[in-house]
Amino acid sequence: MDIRQLETLIRIVETGSFAGAADALSATQSTISARIGALERSLGVTLFDRSSHRARLTPKGQELLKPAQEIVALAARVRHQIGDAQALTGTIRMGVVGLVAQTWLPKLMAAVRDRYPGVTVVLDIALTAALVDKLRDGEIELAIVTGPIDEAGTSSVPLGYDEFVWIAPSALNVPTERMTPVDLARWPVLGLSSQSHHAPVIERWFREGGAEYKPVISCNTVRVLGDLTLAGLGVSLLPRRSYAAEIAAGMLTVLDTTPDIKPVEFVALYRTSTPNPLTSATAALATEISEFANRGR
């Protein structure tokens, strides 16, 4: 019995199949089967019921799961606390929301390459809800998403806050005086898709202000939303810092709206049930690299 076999058992449970574990561990399915076979032979018991499509633990397998998680967690702590960071190797699958991808993700990747040259990163750019689902299912090990996130079996590392403001293309000639949701609703509003963190926030802002939120165009990335706004198609809620150059150049105008919308929190989220020194190390590095403000309002 070795650590790799125990890690494999845990990943099969997380992903629900030998094939899923193979993908998660960047191994072949035959390798995964061989590891579990060797583990079963060393213990003299059957760990998985292979009669159904989804791999299920036998009673003996269920009995082993918690000790396996504890052993893997201890090994991860030893590697992280005592081992040489330069010697860390392996692959980390990391999910990132679009706003981070279009701003400071390249700096984070450069820092990872510099500090952990033996580590390979596989990126997945998606919305927060989709990334949390993938983290839960074991498809990724680390997610940089909007928060706060209350997800069992995970650790959340704060990365700071970003300010989102209503922005209009200067060519649209939207009034500069203070505007309420009712006032803003008279203009074409561009929005993010319903799976976005901002969708319910925006909808509630309009509803509590006595207006109906009816976006003329919706999309699932901030970058596309910004491009549509720059094209003069409507007003949208965008991160002020990301469009500072366009605002300074007079291409975009920050609208004076009331009430204010609270800054958006961002976090690095990773599973604690399957500790991996790569995930905690990368999450810690993200706190150093993050360009978000350290506190909200």
UniProtKB/TrEMBL annotation:
<comment type="similarity">
    <text>Belongs to the LysR transcriptional regulatory family.</text>
</comment>
<dbReference type="Pfam" id="PF03466">
    <property type="entry name" value="LysR_substrate"/>
</dbReference>
<dbReference type="InterPro" id="IPR005119">
    <property type="entry name" value="LysR_subst-bd"/>
</dbReference>
<keyword id="KW-0238">DNA-binding</keyword>
<dbReference type="Pfam" id="PF00126">
    <property type="entry name" value="HTH_1"/>
</dbReference>
<feature type="domain" description="HTH lysR-type">
    <location>
        <begin position="1"/>
        <end position="58"/>
    </location>
</feature>
<dbReference type="InterPro" id="IPR000847">
    <property type="entry name" value="LysR_HTH_N"/>
</dbReference>
<keyword id="KW-0805">Transcription regulation</keyword>
<dbReference type="InterPro" id="IPR036390">
    <property type="entry name" value="WH_DNA-bd_sf"/>
</dbReference>
<protein>
    <submittedName>
        <fullName>LysR family transcriptional regulator</fullName>
    </submittedName>
</protein>
<dbReference type="InterPro" id="IPR036388">
    <property type="entry name" value="WH-like_DNA-bd_sf"/>
</dbReference>
<keyword id="KW-0804">Transcription</keyword>
